[in-house]
Amino acid sequence: MARLVLVGFMGAGKTTIGRLLAQETNLPLIDLDEKIVADNQQTIPEIFAAVGEVGFRRLETQALKAALNDDVVVATGGGVVTQAINRQLLQDTLAPIIYLKAPAPVLNQRVANDTNRPIAAKLDAAGFAELVASREAFYQEVSDLTLLTAEVTPETIVATIKAQVLQARNSKNHN
Ligand SMILES: Nc1ncnc2c1ncn2[C@@H]1O[C@H](COP(=O)(O)OP(=O)(O)OP(=O)(O)O)[C@@H](O)[C@H]1O
Ligand SMILES: O=C(O)C1=C[C@@H](O)[C@@H](O)[C@H](O)C1
Ligand SMILES: [Mg+2]
After folding, report:
1. Is the ipTM beyond the 0.95 threshold?
2. Per-residue pLDDT reduced to its tens digit, 25-45
3. Residues with beta carbon inside 6 Å of ligand 2?
4. Is 67 helix (H, G, I), strand (E, B) or coil?
5. Which domains does the chain have, with CATH numbers?
6. Ligand minimally distant from the alpha carbon of residue 13
7. What pTM was computed for the model?
8. What distance in Å separates the CA atoms of residue 109 and residue 161, rounded to the nearest whole number?
9. Is 43 exposed, middle or buried, given 0-12, 13-18 or 19+ CB atoms closer than 10 A?
10. Residue 173 alpha carbon to ligand 3 centre in Å
11. pLDDT digit string (tens) for 95-121?
12. What share of the chain is helix, strand, coil (3-state, %, to 5)?
């Protein structure tokens, strides 16, 4: 079973924090976007161009299912919660799920110059903010804890996760 799952919108810091957490805990990281890219030998824009968002979501569900069964930290892609089947998989796992949250303008600024996110690339600021708002309830629905990441360094977020989630879990296991 996965040890910890990170969810949140594009730019929330799932990949960044997942990498740091993996280093600090010596747990492997499975980043679903990176796994899909590696398995398919195509970038995310190439996958979207070849099989559309529907095809990408199928690959994402397969990657999520496999990752949740491994002893790893899982960094999801921002849109994982848009699929009912993925929300069910997340609700069924016993792994703690952390929602990394930040205001839409902060998220937009963080991903603005990155051409590797086909959904963000075609949105203006208003469309981006609308998409953030439309997914909020889903992130809340699947997660156990929300951490605000706007004015917090990745290192501080990792320290909080270690203290509040991983150590709390370990001490529970040792009682
Ligand atoms: N807490 C933070 N403070 C400042 N910048 C951050 C923070 N977390 C992440 N970033 C920056 O934001 C950008 C996006 O981060 P990252 O790729 O980790 O997001 P993500 O949640 O994995 O997005 P996606 O859903 O698209 O995979 C990176 O440039 C990263 O350095
Ligand atoms: O928010 C989204 O829908 C996405 C986020 C990224 O992590 C990638 O999974 C992809 O670009 C789609
Ligand atoms: Mg990521």
Report:
1. yes
2. 899 999 999 999 999 999 999
3. 10, 33, 44, 77-79, 117-119
4. helix
5. 4-168 (3.40.50.300)
6. 1
7. 0.96
8. 24
9. middle
10. 30
11. 999 999 999 999 999 999 899 999 999
12. 60, 10, 25
